């Protein structure tokens, strides 16, 4: 017999399981279909495992400079145990995985493991939206929901012509499976993932070469953020080549690793490394889920939705998260889950603009941004006013031993409205939450600057920057 339910969620990543919980808490019966493990890419192949590796790398880097804190550590006693690093990573992932499973049970959400495929009108339903699920044992199950939420996520985009083998030439997914730390690595792509891996591997002692087609790293971020991160990576020995066009046809796996060529500013350059990791964006998982049986449309590999309600071409079918493109971040997917569920339960949700979703980079130093970059604001017709304050003015930054970085605020000189905030430095990914709240409340720089910040803390950098922007004083 088919399973009838109010809401069927296709995909159990952050967007999917958040949607399931939200719908269940709103009194709806919910079935979630996941082909792999609850938690999705973020938990098993993305956010959590990579941040675990980054934290281990940070600890190792800190130990290596322990003498600067007045602590003597015998150099011979410091070493990277890659197996232990990976064991710690796996333990964190498993603990969180159990937590998500418990969350489903707590909210009485039925979880079905298998490959779900939306089917068209049939004996089960007069309209498309029923989901046929192929179970691991070869059997099948049919789910008949009133509403469907597609949250199938994304996967790393591959460059055509490269000799991917899952070990020597890999995406970020397979890089997590490396059982040994490579002595050298060529990272193709200088976006967020490429920069994080470059930072982490460099801290572990790997020789890193980073190749980016744009004229700078992190081309989507403010130029000052790009420059500061590039400077930090360069100080740690990362070789960076921007404006580089990789010749995929020249790349080959050798006994020593991988070799390939690229055109860098008009000159042919040869690269060789033990491993190559390709990080050139992500593409939506739109294949094999039955979209052809519906009026759901896709464009450029992502599902098209109403930007306000997240409904697809079929009003009872919603799509959220990476599969719709835009800001492909776990917290964006969670927000979209809340919007979709609020709408399908009769509410009138307000979806946050993509630009006002915090963007975080967990390199060393960290970086975080929200809102307009200075360049984009000028191109958008704003009369821009900025303030940029170095982290080194803060007592806590000096005490912490991580004084590199800055805070930069961008405002509309005519209205005084806060347009964007850009941070580089220790704990930047935590500090950006204040700017996110400010954007939600439509706070102006003067109001943020007047807010009392405890001393000494790193959070004072927000106060100093906003005071600098509003002309209200401060240390700088």
Topology diagram in text:
Blueprint: E1 3-10, H1 14-25, E2 30-34, H2 40-44, H3 47-64, H4 82-106, E3 110-113, E4 115-119, E5 130-134, E6 140-150, E7 154-156, E8 169-171, H5 172-175, E9 184-188, H6 192-204, E10 207-211, H7 223-235, E11 239-241, E12 244-253, E13 258-264, E14 267-273, E15 275-278, E16 282-284, E17 298-299, E18 302-303, E19 317-319, H8 330-344, E20 359-361, E21 367-371, H9 374-379, E22 384-390, H10 395-400, E23 406-412, E24 418-424, H11 428-441, H12 445-450, H13 460-470
What does this structure look like?
Strands 1, 2, 3, 4, 5, 6 and 19 form a seven-stranded mixed sheet that branches. Helices cover 31% and strands 26% of the residues. The protein is built from 13 helices and 24 strands. The termini are far apart. By secondary structure, it is α/β, with parallel strands linked by helices. It has helices spanning 14-25, 40-44, 47-64, 82-106, 172-175, 192-204, 223-235, 330-344, 374-379, 395-400, 428-441, 445-450, 460-470; strands spanning 3-10, 30-34, 110-113, 115-119, 130-134, 140-150, 154-156, 169-171, 184-188, 207-211, 239-241, 244-253, 258-264, 267-273, 275-278, 282-284, 298-299, 302-303, 317-319, 359-361, 367-371, 384-390, 406-412, 418-424. The protein has three domains: 3-46 and 86-155 and 283-354, FAD/NAD(P)-binding domain (3-Layer(bba) Sandwich), CATH 3.50.50.60; 158-280, FAD/NAD(P)-binding domain (3-Layer(bba) Sandwich); 365-470, 2-Layer Sandwich (Enolase-like, domain 1), CATH 3.30.390.
